[in-house]
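Title: Request for sanity check on Glutamate receptor prediction

Description:
We are preparing a figure and want to confirm that the structure record we downloaded matches what your pipeline produces today. Could someone re-run it with the sequence below and paste the raw structure tokens into this thread? We only need the token string, no images.
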Amino acid sequence: LSPKLSSALLFDAVYAVVTAVQELNRSQEIGVKPLSCGSAQIWQHGTSLMNYLRMVELEGLTGHIEFNSKGQRSNYALKILQHTRSGFRQIGHWHVSEGLSMDNRIFSSNISDSLFNTTLIVTTILENPYLMLKWNHQELEGNDRYEGFCVDMLKELAEILRFNYKIHLVGDGVYGVPEANGTWTGMVGELIARKADLAVAGLTITAEREKVIDFSKPFMTLGISILYRVHMGRKPGYFSFLDPFSPGVWLFMLLAYLAVSCVLFLVARLTPYEWYSPHPCSQGRCNLLVNQYSLGNSLWFPVGGFMQQGSTIAPQALSTRCVSGVWWAFTLIIISSYTANLAAFLTVQRMDVPIESVDDLADQTAIEYGTIHGGSSMTFFQNSRYQTYQRMWNYMYSKQPSVFVKSTEEGIARVLNSNYAFLLESTMNEYYRQRNCNLTQVGGLLDTKGYGIGMPVGSVFRDEFDLAILQLQENNRLEILKRKWWEGGKCPKEEDHRAKGLGMENIGGIFVVLICGLIVAIFMAMLEFLWSLRHSEQSEVSVCQEMVTELRNIILCKDSFHPHRRRGGMIRTRPALPDERRARSTTTLSNGKLCSGGEPDPLAQRLAQEAALVARGCTHIRVCPECRRFQGLRARPATGSPARSEESLEWEKTTNSSEPE
């Protein structure tokens, strides 16, 4: 309760008690008997006094005073008053039995006729997008020279309140700050001097200004924010797929690959379980053992594991399996981490902002920061009791050269051309960020406040403007005007994070890697082909002729087989027996026909090999499941006996080097 209302209730309470005591004294003599506060004894006239209190009926400062049988106030009414510049006026009443009753004339219209056909002087300041000069303002006169949010809002208010207005630019071009002698500058000073009736601009409602002028209800809510120049990071390039890992990580991965290859090669040589016979069918007769982990295979095996593709080389020993398992676990984590970060590095153009909040700004001195001199933002820091803001004010006040600017445009230019952070209202921050993609907002809002229409103290039309502003807010007209003047910039909205397709500028590098890999593969194939011809027995065939033949077969898509080239220096086959030559030159096919002359086809070669084995005395023929060569079965004389037994039979490998298809 307010002090005045509490005093009125206290007066009525004392008045009611005095009235009841007077009535009690008329009916009987009230004796005075001392009582102890610590005893349970009651006053002998207490019950009678309570009965007289319930019968009291009088008019007090708070209205009609009457009590029910329970001692509660009853049958009372409340007046509903409206505070105006001329005083209070009653706009309704409430009764305990009748309820609420309001004056219908108050709600019959949102405005009064006090401003009808009245011309008001409006002081303002040029500030985008609130008030701007039209491009052809020199050809126009009066209010038609201006455009902006405040101009459109004035038109809406004038249509509702039916008044006329004349826009007047403030002489000194500032909003208004107090001077040492107690006077005010800018628009506030003109309102105090009664040179203007309204101040319509981005004028912040502050307690200091509220002492000397009146404000309407806020037509826009905002706060102080930080505007800073953003350095855009490099756009995703052709080799952006390398960005998820730093160059150091890629280097360590290469070293890890080489280390694993060397350890695998060493372990496979040391363990006896990685050595095996090249031809299991010749075990017992051949002491030669081979190891699948040659230097080339040791380098290839980790590559297959890293690419999640595996290889045909399978570790047999426990030691080599241990190396393989550790490498696979390593690659699993690396590939998962790479995949998780790849999309962000391919699509996001990262911004380089050294500060992220007002605390970061206050804790450093490399970046200068300031605000408009004489504005509400400067007053906010000057009067703040928050430690961080006090430290920022001390920096701004003592910094030389001065970090304060005279206008928003000057502050924006300083942000773009130097290492400077500008402290300004969030609405202006949003407006300029929409029109310059090199600007960004750092952190959130430092406070919450509003813009209001300034008027001289005691203005008789303040209530009318309050109602009109509320009507514009309810009709969403102010929000529509804000979208009209704030949107339309060339920069996209920061909250627009819709997925976009990747272009060649994002993943073109992987195509470059693919093409380079294919070129290297073709080059290596040509080297292998030339190396094979150089060590081939068919020395009478020129390299060019062999190359042309192979290319012709590739173009014509012929069958993928050709005569085996045996390298020089390898063990040659023995001379063919006469029967073998005859079997190779003339072969009886399954249909009874003969195939002779020229180079036999694979089927003819296979039949020739079978005939050669039969000619050598073999009784059975098979293909070795391990080495895929023909083998013949023939009897071998047992020791000490010319007879042949089952135990004396063994499979022997034919000396023919051809393998079955």
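Thanks, this matches our download. The longest strand covers residues 87-95.
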